Amino acid sequence: MNSTTAEKAKVEQGKKEEQEETTTETAAETATLSKQEQADAVTRSKMYWAMGAGLVPVPLFDIAVISGVQMKMLSDMSKIYEIPFSEHKVKNIISALIGGFGSTQFGIPLASLVKIIPVIGQIGSLAAVPVMAGASTYALGKVFIQHFESGGTFLDFDPAAVKEYFAKQFEEGKKVAENVKNASGK
User: Fold this and answer.
1) Surface-to-core class of residue 172, CB atoms within 10 Å of its CB (0-12 exposed, 13-18 middle, 19+ buried)
2) Average pLDDT of 147-165?
3) In a 10 Å sphere around its CB, with 0-12 CB exposed, 13-18 middle and 19+ buried, how is residue 126 labelled?
4) I need a labelling partner for 88 at 20 to 30 A (CA). Which of 21, 44, 120, 124 fits?
């Protein structure tokens, strides 16, 4: 019985050491990435999450989930860039930036509401909402990477000043999201 207990302890110790090595390797890999590379990885990851949230079958609930993903993305970026995060301030910024961009402002809610229509609406929204959600999340991430890289914070962010850049990144995000959607459908 003592040898069995000793063997279990050795196995547990081995697992613990393996986990510590993995954690150390992950921390070392993160340390070698620039802030921009880390933020790009966060943007990409949250874009995937937003696209998944677009598949939520409940109309308008998907929008709440997408907004939550975008908030989490900006929270994660604020940690990377060591910028204080204010949920209230960030909600206002997201609303002003995305709300000021017509196709996103009406496109996602409209596509979400289409889910009410049995079968046809649900199938149609499966094509539109994930791509729009991914594109808007991608664009939002890219806008804030540029802003933070230039030394900006949430306090000095001006949505009107980045409207054109957001539109350009939204179009790029649609292409990226379409590629992701097409690759996952194969």
Assistant:
1) middle
2) 94
3) middle
4) 44
Q: How far apart are CA 138 and CA 66, in angstroms?
A: 12
User: Token pair of 123, please?
Assistant: 């199938």
82: left (phi over 0), alpha (psi -120 to 50) or beta: left
Percent of the chain with pLDDT over 70: 67
Higher pLDDT, residue 101 or 170: 170
60-79: pLDDT as tens digits: 788 889 889 999 999 999 99
Residues 6+ apart with CB under 8 A from 96: 159
pLDDT surpasses 90 at 55 = no
Q: Where are the domains of the chain?
A: 1-32, 35-184
pTM above 0.85, yes or no: no
